[in-house]
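Lab notebook, bench 4. We co-purified these components, and the gel suggests they stay together. Before we commit to crystallization screens, I want a quick structural picture of the whole thing.
Request: model the full complex, all chains together.
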Amino acid sequence: MFTNTDASIIIYTPHYERQLAGSLQLKKIRTALAQINPTVGDLSGNVKKIISYINRSRELKADIVAFPELAVTGYPPEDLLLKPHFILDNIDALQKIVKATEGITAIVGFVDKRDCIFNAAAVISDGRLIDVYHKKYLPNYGVFDEQRYFMAGKRCPVYDLGGVSIGVNICEDIWHEKGPARVQALSGAEVIININASPYHMGKALFREKLVTSRGLECGAAIVYTNMVGGQDELVFDGSSLVAGSKGRLLVKGRPFKEDLIVIDIEVRGVKKKISAANRKELNEILREGEFVEKIKIPVIFSKRKPSCRNRKPKAHPEEEEVYNALLLGTHDYVRKNGFKGVMIGMSGGIDSALVATIAVDALGKENVHGVFMPSMYTSRESYEDAYAHAGNLGMEILKVPINGIFKAYLKILEKNFKEMGVDITEENLQARIRGNILMAFSNKFGRLVLTTGNKSEMSVGYATLYGDMAGGFAVIKDVPKTLVYKLCEWRNREEGSELVPERILWKDPTAELKPDQRDTDSLPPYPLLDPILKAYVEEDRSFEEIMKMGCDIVCAQKVINMVDRSEYKRRQAPPGIKITPRAFGRDRRFPITNRYKSY
Amino acid sequence: MFTNTDASIIIYTPHYERQLAGSLQLKKIRTALAQINPTVGDLSGNVKKIISYINRSRELKADIVAFPELAVTGYPPEDLLLKPHFILDNIDALQKIVKATEGITAIVGFVDKRDCIFNAAAVISDGRLIDVYHKKYLPNYGVFDEQRYFMAGKRCPVYDLGGVSIGVNICEDIWHEKGPARVQALSGAEVIININASPYHMGKALFREKLVTSRGLECGAAIVYTNMVGGQDELVFDGSSLVAGSKGRLLVKGRPFKEDLIVIDIEVRGVKKKISAANRKELNEILREGEFVEKIKIPVIFSKRKPSCRNRKPKAHPEEEEVYNALLLGTHDYVRKNGFKGVMIGMSGGIDSALVATIAVDALGKENVHGVFMPSMYTSRESYEDAYAHAGNLGMEILKVPINGIFKAYLKILEKNFKEMGVDITEENLQARIRGNILMAFSNKFGRLVLTTGNKSEMSVGYATLYGDMAGGFAVIKDVPKTLVYKLCEWRNREEGSELVPERILWKDPTAELKPDQRDTDSLPPYPLLDPILKAYVEEDRSFEEIMKMGCDIVCAQKVINMVDRSEYKRRQAPPGIKITPRAFGRDRRFPITNRYKSY
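Here is the predicted assembly.
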């Protein structure tokens, strides 16, 4: 059960504490950050995992161990939260955890129930539930719907654990300057434990780091930021838990995209008897109607212990590595948590299916990834060679299923109905849909999940066939713009130190090969022009005037905006895929299909 | 532009006013309720419509006309609200409306912008924007996401319009007993205008009627409840605007599912000079921190006029008629607002496609509905006869496209890959997907929208094929349980006074005809047993114990719950369809796909 045996222990003595060390008795609190990967709804599995991390933390002589937000239920449980029996089962699950805390204190995210429900942190110590903190700031933007379910908390408790003053709060709470962390710090807290289920997007880990370290400085308290890890439908939680010191330094960081247990000794001055007049004044200004501070003593349950000590340096990663790892984890968890062994991928010889196959093999092992090459009369020799060469490099299976015979059977039966009409997009879509059907037939016959291969650029402008190349259970690179698809393949080749993705796939012109001599650029601007417009329009809600100022051609920009607006109906039927940008499609961008608004 | 020339005018003198009539000068305010059907994002179209209703109200000598919530933008605009230029364009649109209010007062729903945005009602009079009210209660449950976008208002203005005291508030505001209506009434308002975009579900109109009339009684004020009408993706707004008197009587009701203009003369005592001590006391108790009451005078712009008078009696409708009309309007508006002329329907000879075809013909006209009958080796003679007989009764086109040739072409090419495997669900799904492809080919070739025919019972348990019978742009009866599908067909036949839907379709066993002698009951409990379990589990979040208490078989209930839980991935890729129950799939029920929770 316990996956990380690499837990290291860091001793942290803040600078100002060291200056005071001569004159004052310092207190030390050994704190563990349990960066776990729970599964939504798997209450018994999550309890088992949490208890195994509690046990390991006890072995490492931690005083306190912090788990992520809603660790008991997984995050986000969405409308499971409307089921009263689910809430009760989650409370039963918490009871089991309470019993497993002998000789240690644990902070565990769960759903609390009073007249309504709360996103809550249980403060548990030595087999007793000491207190429950209720999240105050409930995010309701982007992918978040927390105000759909939860009431906001009013209390700001501060705990006294063996003479160390501790504040506990949850995720969004720490993003607010005058939020619970500030209140708790003003009330004497020197260690603030903030538990999270903070989903990944590009560059977010760095942004969080800056936020949490500056919050530590402002509050003059150590911030223990524990994040969830793992994939859940469209979301990936990247872990990257961290501890920031009271002087704004990053003290330690958990692994990205993997479970982890980080243990750190934090030395503090210890509980103050009184709140200063200045702090009291600021507190009165910050606290809103009905909100209040409370001091709660946790009975002392531990004695002296000798920590082993080893340091951990945060490591910088290039953007490609970060994104690739997010895609890896998201794919792995969607496939495994949904009980699939293998996946099917339509391999076209193009770069999108090449990237998806590479990710799938890295995530699931080559024996679990099955490619199908489905040539038509428009498929080139190069596509065949590239698909097979790449599958060979990956060591994965690839089958050939030609679609001409089926295509002709469709054309024959439809002939008399279509006789006066010319050839158009209908025949292109038919080919894509035959391929979709073949993949789904393999999926049905062998119980494998079909991974679709469309990228964000295509999904944005609707350059994809519903029930054709969009047919499948999980859209791995749905949120990856085409220009980044190239970068990821290049990065992966560099990492491999060899041509894992054949070079020709990287430089040949992209084509759907659905009619003679077709190129993506017949229908779309070149991707290096297209992607910035899409970013501005889809991710940043820029106006037409602002997009014009980027130096775009007016006709091109109008065409792109039109295509985005008119493709909403396709995206509504697309499989879920992994969010890696600040705004993905799916839960993150909720658009009407029936919509006559024109941005220009 | 103006669609309803049937506006009638009702004179309302409340009972208590009549008693006082001898001693007091009564004031009369002629109030128009403009129950319009705007289109989301069509700012210029909506402005044109609003102005045409203002003009008609002026012709009818109304003092004031009330439009629905967010009439300028359409409802719900969803993430269009995140585009700053959309907000600015909506304010420009409002300016055009302001200029068109010569000699009349209008209450118009729009998006107001300050530091953040508000769901707002503009109070406009004689070419001037007098004031803006901000909605206080922002729904964030069910299909609603208003806290994703809007800030809540704090002000409770009361307007003096020629000596008549008027309160204005928005939709959800009226559902709260101690909400703005109460505050405004305590502050002297005798007419409360509540503007709405309240979506339909079965029985909701009656529920609203009870709520609004009892709110009138509690407040001792007339409530002018103006609702939107029309279809928007998954939602239908049913109109049924109404006016409740200060004694709790229903005074007048707008037409359901159609645009309407209702004009009523309301007689009141007129503006009071002072708030009584008792009212002042209750006001102090109700108002929360930061909330306040304000009195605003609207300059008098009208003189005496002589109304014509005719009464309007609310009419009761059977449930089937109500639901059928909701489906009609939802289908009509999705097809028309998205610019499609015609629709394609796969006609199987079964009851689901029969109902969808009937609705489509009623909504769009027989010349715009095109059926395709796609027989396989498993299709019975009866299915053929029934599909053709029904299409004949409707007067719609029906084509025959046999799928055997294509099916054989698939089997042939897949043979060597599947050779050691038996026949299973794969071959059934293949047939459904060939039919989906054929319908989509017709859709692409002729620019028609494919209507899917799956009902709520099938969608709940996943008894449907992704990219097969689920392929299409709009799922008309997605929220209609199978047992109600029968009732709707029976009702429609009774209305017709003849066998519009052939009798045999109504009594033969439901079958997918994807293998020999198949019946729905091979895989599912009979629908009269299944539907109550689905209602309890899907719509009401009942626990397994509660479902057992309904008298269900334990194995059957477990099987049904399992099927519902495991089909979420299919529903996520389903086309949108019309909400007619308190909880539909889609925006209304947000479930994780990756979910290991078991309800038993």
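Residues 1-8, 11-23, 302-311 of chain B have pLDDT under 50 and may be disordered. Worth comparing against the SEC data before the next meeting. The first strand of chain B starts at residue 9 and ends at 12.
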